[in-house]
Design brief:
The structure holds two protein chains of two kinds. By secondary structure, chain A is mostly helical. Chain A contains eight helices and no strands. In chain B, helix 3 links the parallel strand 2 and strand 3. Classes of the chains: A mainly alpha, B alpha/beta.
Chain lengths: 236, 418
């Protein structure tokens, strides 16, 4: 009985030691990955921040209106600081995932594989949103200036409409790319956009035909008056 | 260079004088311009080998055919003697982006290829050009050793508003030479200067469009070429709808001026008071056609700018200037007055913003147009009953303000307008 008990205890101990010995290198690998990863993240953050400062990224962001938006949202940090922090946390996140993966625990590995498969979509969506936002700011400003120079009283409204249309379009594209309720997003966008166009068409063609008539008459009269009052200055 | 054009130049081999005429759909006036040029060359340079180059931007109204039609026999009444050499005419399409500057590039290339000693360019929409213009533009180059001849005209007091309110005073304050019409459009220049122009790679920029005139004038001054101006008389050109052309014309000219400021920063920072340049020609008063100006529309455009573009202007102007503009936007049409020092401050602030790129450059320049119209409206209002001489004095006074406030520009240029 004593022999059996002894064998059972020894076997369990051996098995446990075996598992510890198998697990230990993985643990060491994880610790090494974490240390190196954090170090790389820290160095990358520093280098990127200096690089962004050197190329005057903050000034460019100011020109594009990004700084203005951040300050409106209560963010006091500069865009260069925020971008370098963002990449720091991206590297930290990747390091953590790699570290956990190094432990070779079956349950987490599936999750990590799925995460990595999804990562390109996430990056693509972020890129779409950033580019969409920049285009919206640029096109909105260009519309505003062109409308003012064309002497349109509703220049600001037109500029905002252009800006929001591009932002909503890029948001729709980003959500579609992320695979979040793809059909619902596309359908919602189509319905909203189609609805606006239809509403305008109905309002202009039927509901507000008197208004439309007045508007066209004023436009035509205004053009005639403008032609009559045209400057004949040669600017050069 | 196009092959047929090149082979035509090779056939001619050499020329002493070259006159270039850029054109695009100028059927109404080109015949008169070509006629005046040919008569002028035959009358004043009968013993000189001369060539006329029409650099056309693809006219569809028969401009090129009209140029071909004009013959020296048509001018028997104005010629004392016939030219020893026949005047060659070359009609060629220009290459590069569409614009006046690209047309000029083709003319410079022809001058280099033919080793021309003296060259002149004249606008193809002129109704007031006479054969004498050829002598006036070419003689200082051909016989007096000058490299660049700028025009002086008798113009309506409200004509040439970009010249009078921006280009002339700014160029004068920056480079210290009083060239009254730096973007006149009709110039004389030496073959040496034409070759120098071609060494610059600017043919994809606004210089290839309306920026060419100020670029030519500025380079001639800044690179130390011998410069003068000649009085040509009245400048009357074909009537077009000016409102439709203002945007691109304004941005191309102003972007060229601001771009050149960046290039010649060291030079203009060291220049103090401006000096007159040698001036030739007989000055006489000319009768000019009246010009209609819609002040209400200009002031309205300025007010709209104050209402909607202030968020862009605030990135460029000091808070004091922005407040000044806001109060100006609130004033009635009757009380509307845009002071000279406010205008100069704005021009200098925009030049600094262009240099530092604090706002997208195309947007920056386009957003300037309501300010420019406001200043023009005020100028017209102030001078409605003034004589041409009195108006010229007002322009002179604006130039002095530009010169006096140059330290403000230098200070802002260094710190980036912050």
């Amino acid at each position: 009985m004593g022999e059996v008990w002894k064998v059972a205890v020894t076997d369990s101990l051996n098995k446990f030691l075996g598992k510890v010995i198998t697990f230990l290198p993985n643990l060491l690998a994880m610790i090494t990955i974490l240390i190196i990863g954090f170090l790389i993240a820290w160095m990358f953050k520093k280098i990127l921040y200096r690089f962004l400062r050197a190329i005057q990224f903050d000034r460019v962001s100011e020109r594009w209106g990004l700084t203005h938006i951040l300050s409106k949202g209560g963010v006091a940090y500069s865009p260069a600081y925020l971008l370098s922090r963002f990449f720091y946390w991206v590297i930290v996140l990747i390091t953590l995932i790699l570290g956990v993966n190094a432990l070779e625990v079956a349950a987490t590995q599936n999750l990590i594989a799925q995460f990595f498969n999804y990562l390109p979509h996430l990056f693509a969506a972020i890129v779409i949103l950033v580019i969409g936002y920049l285009i919206a700011i640029f096109a909105g400003q260009a519309t505003l200036i062109a409308a003012v120079n064309a002497q349109m009283e509703s220049a600001r409204l037109l500029s905002r409409a252009v800006r929001w249309f591009i932002i909503i379009l890029s948001l729709t594209m980003a959500l579609y790319h992320l695979g979040i309720a793809e059909k619902v997003v596309v359908a919602a966008f189509s319905i909203t956009f189609g609805g606006i166009v239809l509403a305008l068409a109905i309002a202009f063609g039927w509901g507000g035909r008197e208004l439309a008539k007045d508007f066209l008459e004023k436009l035509s009269k205004g053009r005639d008056e403008r032609d009559k009052g045209q400057d004949h200055i040669s600017h050069l | 260079m196009e092959k047929p054009f090149q082979s035509q130049l090779e056939d001619i081999k050499e020329a002493d004088i070259l006159v270039g005429i850029p054109s695009y759909n100028n059927l109404q006036t080109i015949g008169h311009v070509v006629g005046a040029v040919m008569a002028g060359l035959a009358k004043y340079f009968p013993n000189v080998k001369a060539i006329l180059v029409n650099s056309d931007g693809g006219s569809t109204d028969g401009t090129q055919d009209e140029v071909k039609k004009v013959q020296i026999e048509d001018f028997k009444t104005v010629l004392i003697s016939y030219p020893v050499h026949p005047i060659h005419k070359i009609i060629t399409p220009y290459h590069g982006i569409p614009g006046k500057g690209s047309a000029f590039r083709t003319i410079f290339e022809a001058a280099r290829s033919l080793n021309a000693k003296a060259c002149a360019v004249v606008d193809s929409d002129l109704r007031s050009i006479t054969p004498e213009w050829m002598e006036l533009l070419l003689r200082p180059i051909y016989e007096e050793g000058f490299d660049y001849v700028a025009p002086l005209y008798g113009r309506h007091k409200f004509d040439g508003t970009i010249t009078n309110s921006i280009v002339y005073p700014l160029t004068r304050a920056l480079y210290g030479k009083r060239i009254r019409q730096p973007i006149g459009g009709d110039f004389g220049f030496s073959g040496k200067l034409a070759k120098f122009y071609l060494t610059n790679d600017v043919w994809e920029t606004d210089v290839a469009r309306f920026g060419i005139d100020i670029w030519m004038t500025t380079l001639a001054i800044a690179e130390g070429f011998k410069v003068c101006q000649v009085y040509l008389g009245a400048k009357i050109h074909d009537a077009k709808d000016p409102g439709s052309d203002l945007g691109p014309m304004f941005t191309q000219v102003v972007s060229s001026v601001f771009g050149l400021m960046r290039e010649y920063e060291t030079l203009w920072k060291g220049i103090g008071e401006s000096q007159p340049v040698p001036t030739f020609g007989f000055h006489y008063e000319v009768g000019l056609e009246p010009i209609s100006v819609n002040l209400e529309r200009m002031i309205g455009n300025f007010r709209l700018g104050v209402k909607d573009l202030m968020e862009i202007w605030e990135k460029v102007l000091s808070s004091e200037t922005a407040k000044w503009l806001e109060s100006l936007g609130r004033s009635s049409d009757k009380a509307f007055f845009f002071p000279q020092d406010l205008w100069v401050r704005i021009i200098y602030d925009f030049a600094v913003a262009y240099h530092h790129g604090s706002v997208h450059r195309e947007h920056l320049l386009r957003s300037m147009i309501p300010l420019y119209l406001g200043r023009v409206a005020s100028f017209v209002k102030e001078n409605m009953d003034s004589s041409a001489i009195e108006v010229e004095e007002k322009i002179e006074s604006l130039c002095r303000v530009f010169e006096e406030m140059k330290p403000y520009l230098i200070g802002r240029w260094r710190i980036g307008g912050e």
